[in-house]
Specification:
The protein folds into four domains: 47 residues, no CATH class; 101 residues, Immunoglobulins (Immunoglobulin-like); 56 residues, no CATH class; 85 residues. α1 packs across α3. The strands form four sheets. Strands 2-8-7-4-5 form a five-stranded mixed sheet, with no helix packed on it. It has a five-stranded antiparallel sheet with strand order 9-16-11-12-15. Strands 1-3-6 form a three-stranded antiparallel sheet, with no helix packed on it. A hairpin with a 2-residue loop joins β13 and β14. The protein is of the alpha+beta class and 307 residues long. It starts with 51 loop residues before the first strand and ends in a 10-residue tail after the last strand.
């Protein structure tokens, strides 16, 4: 017997082409010969499932695990690639790593069959589509999600520098302060994966720690002069873009003891791209705040939702 769907009136032409089941919006009786009708709730036929990403904003340095939810026809393998605005695919050789040991860039769904996960490669900031291939040599496009992901400049993780600072100087941990890291890379963040095992390990651990309890951090990419109300920043990732009320920003390390660092603070009203606007200082400044200075979000100043 044909699948009748939940609530199907089985006494009415059971199993026939017009037995559509509960939820069918088609007017009854249908036009003669019109068999391509909505089959109703519960019927497994002719169902199209949307594919949904768990996140559409990722940092340019790569590494985050992205999950794509949907109904897959088979467990894999698939090959996942990002496509930029010029139509170029990334990575240019192979595909995104499956993020499981031994799988390489052959991506499979999880046992549930409705989730696929893969690691995002380093990408320049911009908007990217996702293209998924299958077949013996991955030459068949099975899914394409246009303009699915926005890649933005990464946030500098303060926890990374704290971890590195605990090592003796003889260990090659990579830059140990935000200022030294910025001096090394400049306003363009180096998206190339860190060199050396210790540098990579401290970077990855710092990212995880920052995501759990850290405050968003960015860096000035141009001097902030007295009287200016806008600032150019390296990244707005993790910062409120349009808060209901002005949000506070600490200049430098907010936990530094007085005398070693001045705990200057200002507020802003919006962030668009890499421009922070509506700046108002708690106390007037008489000298410029230099390019490369660390800015830390005052999370306690963020107004509660609905409040």
């Amino acid at each position: 017997m044909a699948d009748l769907g939940f609530g199907s009136p089985s006494d009415l032409d059971p199993g026939g082409p017009y037995d559509k089941g509960f939820g069918s919006p088609t007017e009854w009786p249908p036009f003669p010969g019109d068999l391509d009708l909505d089959l109703g709730f519960g019927s497994p036929s002719e169902i199209k499932i949307a594919f949904v990403l768990d996140s559409n904003i990722v940092p340019d340095e790569g590494g985050p695990i992205m999950r794509l939810y949907g109904e897959w026809q088979h467990p894999g393998p698939y090959r996942v690639r990002f496509v930029d605005g010029l139509g170029l695919e990334h990575p240019d050789i192979g595909g995104c790593y499956h993020a499981k040991p031994g799988k390489g860039d052959a991506v499979y769904t999880q046992l549930s069959g409705d989730v696929m996960q893969f690691a995002v490669p380093p990408l320049d900031p911009g908007t990217y589509s996702i293209r998924i291939y299958e077949g013996l040599i991955f030459n068949t496009i099975t899914i394409e999600l246009p303009d699915a992901v926005e890649v933005v400049p990464r946030m500098r993780d303060r926890a990374t520098y704290r971890i590195r600072a605990r090592y003796q100087q003889l260990y090659r941990t990579g830059p140990r302060t935000i200022q030294r890291d910025y001096a090394k890379t400049g306003p363009t963040v180096d998206v190339e994966f860190p060199k050396g095992m210790l540098e990579a390990w401290t970077h990855a651990l710092g990212q995880e720690m920052q995501s759990v309890y850290g405050e968003p951090v960015t860096v000035l990419t141009r001097d902030l002069l007295p009287g200016e109300t806008t600032a150019l920043i390296e990244s707005g990732l993790g910062w409120p873009a349009n808060p209901a009320e002005p949000v506070g920003v600490f200049v430098g390390n907010p936990r530094a003891t007085l005398g070693s660092d001045i705990r200057h603070r200002f507020t802003y009203t919006s962030i668009a791209g890499l421009v922070m606007s509506g700046i108002e200082h708690d106390h007037p400044i008489v000298t410029a705040i230099g390019m490369g200075t660390e800015l830390v979000l005052d999370v306690a100043s963020i107004p509660p939702e609905g409040g």
